[in-house]
């Protein structure tokens, strides 16, 4: 189980690094816009992301 968790973390880091590597200026602008969002919107985005990830894991497994 620990190996799979490590693999998942590594893949997450690779995927999160793609956009700043390819489009650093646009990525920075997007992060600034996200930082301006109210807490409620950020929480809703986080919840939607978690639910989508859980659903995809369920479907793929």
UniProtKB/TrEMBL annotation:
Domain of life according to the entry: Bacteria
A Pfam short name: DUF2065
The keyword Transmembrane appears for this protein: yes
InterPro entries tied to this protein: DUF2065 (IPR019201)
Transmembrane segments: 6-23, 44-60
Keywords assigned: Membrane, Transmembrane, Transmembrane helix
Record's keyword annotation contains Transmembrane helix: yes
PANTHER family in the record: INNER MEMBRANE PROTEIN, INNER MEMBRANE PROTEIN-RELATED
Protein's name in the database: DUF2065 domain-containing protein
Organism, as annotated: Zestomonas carbonaria
